[in-house]
Amino acid sequence: MLMPFTAQVVLADTDTDVINDAPVGLDISKYFDVGNFEKTSSEDGDYAYTDNSATIYDNANDTSDKHNGRVLDMAKSGAPGAVGAAWSKNSNNNYIDINKKQTVSVWLYFGSGDGADVFANGEGMSLVLQNDPRKTSAMGAGYQALGSMGADTAKITSNGTNVLGNWSWGEDSSSGATTNTPEQAAQSAVGNSIALNFKAQDNTLMGNKLQDPLKIAESAVTYKDFLHTAGKKSIYYTLNGFDTTNGNDTPPKTYPGYLNLLNTDFGGSIHSLVLGNTGSPYGLINLTYPGNPISYKALDLDSIRGDDTKLIANMTTIANGSEWAYLTGISNKGKALSTYQAAPTRTHLTDANDPNGNPVYWHHLTFTWNPAENGNPATVSYDYNDKYPDGTTNTGQTQYYDEVKETIPVDPSAFGNPTDGKVYWGLTGANNTEANYSKLAVFESIPALATATATASLTDNDLNKTITDDSTDNTVKNGDNLSFDYNLKWDSTSRENWQDIVSSLNLPTDVTYRTATITYKDANGNSSSPITISDAKGMTNSTLNYTLTKDLGTINANSGYTSADIVLNGTATNSTGQEITVSPAPSTFKGSNAIETTSTPQFKIEGNKVPDKILKLNVSKDLDFQDINYQTMKKYIDRKSDFDLTVTSLRSPWKLDVATNGFSLNGKSFHGNLVYKKSQASTQPLTSSDELIAQDLNSYQDKTVSDLSATWTKDTGLLLEPDQNQISPAGKYQGTLNWTLVNSITN
To answer: Which superkingdom (predicted)?
Structure first.
């Protein structure tokens, strides 16, 4: 899909602002290694990229316990050319098993994206899976290589003369320049790897994004005589050409997963595989194989300059002062490297604004490795900008926070032969020379711990309709009984149970809430009884906070529950007479080892003209009592499950009756009675004749919901009274309650 882009100018960020606004993440300090880089045997002593700039945030003055150990900085602002990498610690179970589905949930920050400068945000980050022999000391090159790809280093000889201690240097135009070959570039990359790259800057030799060769290092001086009156040294450059296109190029058929890529429809004008990319003002995502020479192609600079006027001007003569002149010329046809990119997709890596105009610094990424199965190739799936930092699902609320989803076929043979299918994974990142913004990350879940999901849906119980984010019919009626279901699910690929889950729910507006329950369920679908966790009083501030009493998962003889449903019951309320839209309400479920967020779907409440009268009964479909044995001495048996009994009225006095024929099993009656205890001093046996349960003789001018079951305790409400003088045969007894709600006399 090719998205339209317009000018976007926003204020510059500071690291302090961005970190203070970071979503709450996991403490990752013991799960990632940000140690020293290790050069490969092909890299000489003048190699430019030797320092790891990555750090895990640790500020002694920050006592909030929200950021220390939780924010990963790959390349700091104010550090030109910084490059960093953080790799998973396999010793702490933080690896990716390529034989199983694996998921990473992470927030990323790239920069503000000042539209006046095409290089303001450079360079970017990569999420990398690797089986490099250097393990957690693996490294790629900086700048355009993002810490994952290899170096495109070009080397020029410079001659110098020494007159009375003053050296004068100049490039040797006759000696020619050398540029890394694809093989040399691959040797300096992260080996045996697959990288999902987030490029905040285009690096092309074409058009207005052409940069002068960037000096990255120089060698020591080699003296030509013992008096040191003359000498020479090597100057090293990066040519910033990895995104250069060539319309006549055909990708090699030996590229990893070539046929699978070509058979995948990525939509719109997105190429399956292409040399370079057409660029984007605010960011691009692609997939590469950094350690494979086939990922790189050497382009003839002399040929390129014939296609681009700016490059011609920079290359024509040595006299114009451009370093390009020393890299190419009539007698010296230099080379520059570009890269093959799978599914290059334009997007916004830069800051956005939320629907209220507030800055949005952070971008969420859900990354999933899917192993090959059932004849289908292995794939990397990603969902970028799938939600906002407060947890609200992204449904296109703002212009510059576009969601991008792709599934890209990959070739696992790129990893070589990893032991037990386990590979390292991590983030790399790099700055350009401007280094305006740090490259930051905050993790919500990692494979070493728990993997989970949280979703929210809305059910209109009167219309028998469920509403999700994907629903086209999302309208309910005023006065309808609604249920909001927050489903929390532990994934069986987890290495730990989802532990210590604290739920913080923001409740949708324009709903009168009655009760909230939680139900746990195991992997076989067996459910616990619903447990009431709040009544209406606990939800008066449009929030609900609740700590789950059970962990989710099946590891180490846990409870066995793998999911939980928190259900809020209430009534749609619209007194305006016009249709209203209820915005999504975000919620967070923070465990000690995984954090999930979700939001309720947006829905509408019809603004029908208020009717003259309303009289409606809402009652639970089932009523279960606690199990008993024939020797029980209890006078009354309590309900096993929560029970909802409400009457909605408008200008309608009412009374509510109930009748029952009791319980039976295979034609035999249960010895005992169903009773209604309004209080400790008032008990009514229920028979086949209508018994008055409740009434309200007032005629309310506003719609009123009477929650009859809200005040029930375990000793009041509907209870079972066994006959202790008789024994009922063992079994499950069932019966029916017949409710009658009628208009009564006006008070």
So the answer is: Bacteria
Amino acid at 436: N
Does 614-743 match 452-605 at the fold level?
yes
CB atoms within 10 A of CB 295: 25
Domain extent listing, the chain: 15-38+46-445, 452-605, 614-743
- Whether a cis peptide bond, with omega within 30° of 0, leads into 721 is no
Q: Is the pTM above the cut of 0.90?
A: no
The dihedrals phi and psi of 411, each to the nearest 5 degrees, come to -110, 105
Strand, helix or coil for residue 438: coil
Q: How far apart are CA 290 and CA 410, in angstroms?
A: 13
| Burial (CB count within 10 angstroms: exposed 0-12, middle 13-18, buried 19+), residue 479 | buried
Q: How is domain 614-743 classified at the architecture level of CATH?
A: Sandwich (2.60)
Q: Tell me which of 3.90.1150.10, 2.60.40.740, 2.60.40.10, 3.100.10.20 is the CATH number of domain 452-605.
A: 2.60.40.740
Confidence of residue 316 (pLDDT cuts 50, 70, 90): very low
Half-sphere exposure of 393 (CA within 13 A, CB side): 16
Tens-place pLDDT, residues 79-101: 899 999 999 999 999 999 999 99
Q: Cβ distance 311 to 300 under 8 Å?
A: no
Report the run of H or E that residue 302 belongs to, with start and end.
helix 301-305
d(CA 378, CA 366): 17
Would you say residue 128 has pLDDT above 60? yes
Q: Which two tokens stand for residue 477?
A: 């009626």
pLDDT band at residue 333 using 50, 70 and 90 as cut-offs: low
In this prediction, residue 393 carries a pLDDT of 93
| pLDDT value at residue 7 | 34
What is the C-alpha radius of gyration for the chain, rounded to an integer number of angstroms? 34
405 phi, psi to nearest 5 deg: -130, 130
Structure tokens at 323: 């370093």
The Cα-based distances of 276 to 234, 250, 338, 722 in angstroms read: 29, 12, 6, 79
Mean pLDDT for all residues in the chain: 88
Mean pLDDT of 57-82: 88
